[in-house]
Design a protein that fits this description.
Elements: H1 10-19, E1 40-44, H2 47-57, E2 61-65, H3 80-88, E3 91-94, H4 100-108, E4 113-116, H5 154-171, H6 176-200, E5 208-211, H7 217-222, E6 226-229, H8 241-254, E7 258-261, H9 268-277, E8 280-283, H10 299-314
Parallel strand pairs: 1-2, 1-3, 3-4, 5-6, 7-8
Length: 317
Amino acid sequence: MNVRRHHISGIAVAAAAALGLGTLSACSSDSAAAGNTDKFDVVASFYPMAFLAEQIGGTHVNVTSLTEPGQEPHDLEISAKQTAQLQESDAVLYLKNLQPAVDKAVTQADVKNKIDAATLTKLEDHGDVEHEHEGEEASSEEEHALDPHIWLDPVKYAEVAEGVAKAFEKADPDHAADYKKNAAALAKKLADLDSAYENGLKNTGTKIFFTNHAAFSYLAERYGLTQEAISGLDPESEPSPARIKELQTEAEADGVTTVFYETLVSDKTAKTLAQDAGLKTDVLDPLEGITEKSEGDDYFQVMESNLTALKTALGAK
């Protein structure tokens, strides 16, 4: 392991605690900072994993993300430099089946602590979001992939956070107490976010919302909503003309007011559908990365913005 046991003064610890979890710096994208530091070096696959590592690790971790800000994570390709980052790290935190290139690189990397977030909560098959119609039925159940978008459900994200904390505690026992404390604070914030969503979306004029791609199935399921995606789980896939016509009909029948698009992929299809159906458009961010276009600077701020957008679109009372 590359961990250097490093004792921080009581004054420094108190100062860090006073700053609170919310003020942790963004994860590093500098390959020079990826490994061999005096801290517990964590390579995260993309933003939701990096955010967990920062929040739980606090001042004891050095976090590097394989996915740059503004980069669409599903299509990530791993460079030789990033492969070296993995080799030098103390732990890798990733979400299997979201980024095939990451899965391959992690399998090949000689890293002692490989933390797969997909094993820390239950993933579900939301195969129906692919919108199969007559004549397009999947040939086998295995063709449905398990939906990886667990971070958009605060309850599932909290389950993952708990598992990540336990992995950190085991891998870096000198700082286990701080990891446990930070994880408890994060769990409280996620519980508050869950309550805000539950209360905010309890009484709405409609329960159906349209999205660019099927990232929000867990969120919809948690809060009694129905997501209708223009595309399936792949944000780059093109919908059929029949699917567009189906959504136009449904919008009129079910009182849908808004077509949501996102920040990291093209909004062209969503805006075309909205224009043709006489609907509004707004951003519902799947939080796969934070950029200058994001409605907030971190996970919690963007999730709160998403809640505001959903309440408006669904006619919350």
